Amino acid sequence: MGRHSPAALRLRDAVDADLPALGRLFVEVNGLHVAFRPDVFRAIPTGARVERYLAFRLDEDDCRIFVADLDRAPIGFLLARLWQAPRVPIYWQRQEIEVEIVVVAEAARGLGIGRALIRRAHLWAAEVGVERVRLTVHEVNEGARRFYERLGYTTEQRIMSRPVDPSSSAGEDG
Predict the structure, then answer these.
(1) Which residues, other chains included, contact 94 with Cβ-Cβ below 8 Å and sequence gap of 6+?
(2) Interstrand relation of 73-84 and 9-13 (parallel, antiparallel or unpaired)
(3) Which carries the bigger pLDDT value, residue 37 or residue 148?
(4) Cα-based angle 52, 22, 150 (whole degrees, multiple of 5)
């Protein structure tokens, strides 16, 4: 896919008719996640399960799916939701937009599609009066981490894990 003028790119809200194309895009990108973390992500042969999931999310009032069309064909999408801070006394009650999924077809990477989708999520945040957008990216996904850092995202929190080993206690070294 060659370079396209920005005028050829169109961002819009997803509709039910988009779901098969979005499912196919998700299957393509999911292969990257399976390669990074096969212990977390599983390969999916078709987008049927993803379509059902996206259809469910499309009906939620606090969720938006934005589609990037290039030459009238979906080549990327972003799923975001309105996130509420936990009702724990130490936290200020606040809302943020949480970007849950960003997908750009491999053939369309480097054309500014991801940047445009993130920008659209920020516009939605402004429309609903939310001041922050958050997202999660796996440490091993260096390309995605660098992309989000270029867009001004910083690490605020780190999720840590370790395999369970019943023969040792969590506080022991080595």
Answers:
(1) 84, 85, 132
(2) unpaired
(3) 148
(4) 125
Q: Diameter of the chain by CA atoms?
A: 61
In terms of pTM, does the model score above 0.70? yes
Q: What does the pLDDT read at residue 1?
A: 43
- Is 135 within 8 Å of 99 (Cβ atoms)? yes
pLDDT digits (tens, 9 = 90+) for 114-125: 999 999 999 999
Q: Is 103 helix (H, G, I), strand (E, B) or coil?
A: strand
- For residues 51 and 19, the answer to whether their CB atoms sit within 8 Å is yes
78-92: pLDDT as tens digits = 999 999 888 888 888
**Cα separation, 87 vs 119, whole angstroms:** 29
Handedness of CA 163, 165, 169, 174 (dihedral sign): negative
Res 158 pLDDT > 50: yes
Count other Cβ atoms within 10 Å, centred on residue 19. 21
Torsion over CA of 27, 51, 97 and 156, rounded to 10 degrees?
A: -30
- How many Å apart are CA 102 and CA 114, to the nearest integer? 7
Amino acid at 15: V
Two structure tokens written together for 77: 């999408």
First to last CA, the chain: 50
User: What would the pLDDT profile of 5-21 be if each residue is shown by its tens digit?
Assistant: 555 899 999 999 999 99
